[in-house]
User: Fold this.
Amino acid sequence: MSSYSSFRLAFVVIGVSLIVSACGDSSSPTAPAASTAADVTVTIQGDNGSNSYAPNPVSMRVGQTVVWRNADSITHTATQDGAGFNTGTVAAGATSAATMMSTAGTFTYHCTIHPGMVGTINVQ
Assistant:
């Protein structure tokens, strides 16, 4: 391979790397984090009203992340009332992507599949 070809290949690799890293920016304050590692884990226990998520309510600090682990035998979600975070469906035995809580306040949420399942997050 000529030195010109090597230079072109290196230039292309660096360019692609820069483009890929730029596309990874997520400015949404409640966007899922890159992994399921989180500061707080809420367990989905089943369709039991306010006892569906544990702990409930859950307390955390601004900037911490939360995941929902589905310990039930069927699919559920954790979806903020109004607008905000939404785990999407979380299969039995699975864990949602991490969601960062970037604003202080009290946030209520529910399962879109089973609307009677409700929870609260207190962010300080």
Notes: Residues 3-23 form the longest helix (21 residues).
